[in-house]
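Mods, move this if it's the wrong board.
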Amino acid sequence: MFVYNALLIVFLVLFVIAVDTQNALLLFLAFMGILVLFLGVHVYITALWHLASVVSVLEPIYGLAAMKKSYELLKGRVRMAVILVIGYLTICAVIGGIFGTVVVHGGESYGVFGRILVGGFLVGVLVIVNLVGLLVQSVFYYVCKSYHHQGIDKSALHDHLGGYLGEYVALKSSIQMENLDA
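Not the wrong board. Structure tokens:
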């Protein structure tokens, strides 16, 4: 963390010097350094956060303990996590870019019906991407557990998730909807 903060301060100082001296090359290099540092940390924290959300569902821990567990699980699999997160963020950015271009700023070139159709389609695609992303996060969790030679207790997992798989329970309400007057 010290190295990251030191590099960030160096690039920020270079950025200020480049703005002051109006050196375009130094400005570009400082900006790219800050961008790479920011995106690197952002992608890593996103991977850590997503893995912690899976840990908090599949294990009986949550909060900072889940973050610590995901940090331990992520060791040795950071490159795979970065690839998965960058892929997910890229797909979401493409969908957002198309949505902004066609639906938000489409104007008269696409027409109202076309914009509604494309907007509905893109929302559906985004829902599918998010659901596949959740599936990938769960599979990645098991990949990390097997990488660290941690056993997967299937009976404990079944008991933990069993509360979500219960039978349908009818509501016990005395209110009859057809008797209500509007």
